Amino acid sequence: MWRDKHPRKGLYFLTSASEDAKPAEVGDDTEPLARFVARSDSTGDVHLLWYGEKLGEPTGSEHNLYYGRWREADPAATAPELVMPGIYPVMTVKPSGDVMAFSWQPSEDGGRVYSRFRPAKGGEASGENRFQDAVVIAAVPQVTPIVRAFTSGERWLFVWLGQYGADRRDFRLEGAYSDDNGTSWTRFALDDLRGFDVASLQVAADAKQHIVLVVTARDRSANDDSKQNVFALHSADAGTTWSSAVALRRPTPVEQEGGTEDQDPLALFSARNPSVAFGATPGEVLAVWEDWRGIRAGIYAAVSRDYGKTWSTSVSPLMALAGANLGLRYEPNAIFPSDAGYSVVAERYSDDTLEKKRLVRLDIPSSRVVAIAEGAGASPWPGDTEVVKQALRERATAYWNAIKEGEFSDTYEYLDPFFRARFPLDRYLATMGRIKYSQADVEGVRIAGSIAEVSTRIRASIPEFRMPTTGELVSRPEREVTVKNRWLWIDGRWLKEFRVESQDVVFTRY
């Protein structure tokens, strides 16, 4: 399913991979835009919800949600139904074909979250399976695109990230459930993550009232630059009560050595975009996410054997490919169970510019899940031993010796691959040589995970030269200073992170 603007703006639906297959246009004259969802039921019907910008609708809104249905027995989709105003098409469908659609709508006194129920029973002519009247779920000043609808057993659930306060920075992950097909709703809040800026949310729910939520979130209240992390919450009663939020990443005792008393060393590295699924074995849940603890992006996992109450976390990436960066999208849910284990639809970056990527499939056999549960594997971090520190001192010394000698082709090879992917050698050489170094002594090394801070005492001067843009003569006398540089453990060796000091710009993404 996709939205296209050629030959005209429309929403197209294709059910066959055959080269001769022709897509059906299901958007009609609704002027569809690029947000839509598709859900199937047990009869083979596919239910579609999208938002469009058709003018002159009776809602008076510029943007509205529309519903359509495709049946295998009748390839022609039903005519679009105007559902309600909105810009976030959210819908869930039960196996029976019952549909619940949701929308947030602004109002003069804030905003409201609404639902509309569409029963599967009855015929088109009777009107019994048209959408029923809209119901107000909750008053919410503003919502983000982080919205999810799902069912657990016979219960309907809707979860959203609300924004409160004058500056809209009071983030609240909250939701509501209904046991009477949307006639009434009971609201709940996941207060453990109140104030956390949530960037993604995925759900696994079964018919026996088990629910697991996994989210990307970061607490911006104390530090606006804090790294994203991944958390899980679970419910054993279809959302009536919820567990505390737990971080899925946990350092091993060896990894903890790189941190401080009040900081987990993993907090130095981003983790995001978790996906989650129940396995074939009752109680088994597998969560996967994109993790930058190795400076390169990798896919890590956590497994639960008790429906999300407790977790065992992998200490190494699911697939270790030298020079590769593997990530996940924030949506849709990218993990799928099978009899042999699980499959994950990941993204592999084409190179270290991190600009282009392609979809790849990662298969996780049951034996790998068992290994995660048993804590097998080795951390990608080099450790914080004296042997490792001495090796880094020697490498940093070799780098500074090459700098002193003006061997900049050699120093280029010491720099991180993300910089080198964007700046070829000739461009780098054109920027070097203005500063003359007469002394460089490595004085200290501090390692935290795959990051090291190296302190070096240098003596340097800038011989007189003429600025090419202004013609001004510039020079600086020799002076002695201590500089601190960051070195990164990448692909089994230490590389210096290139930083544009004047702009505080780096090319890494961890």
UniProtKB/TrEMBL annotation:
Span of the signal peptide: none
Classification via InterPro entries: Sialidase (IPR011040), Sialidase_sf (IPR036278)
Gene3D superfamilies: 2.120.10.10
Domain Sialidase: 69-314
Protein name per the record: Exo-alpha-sialidase
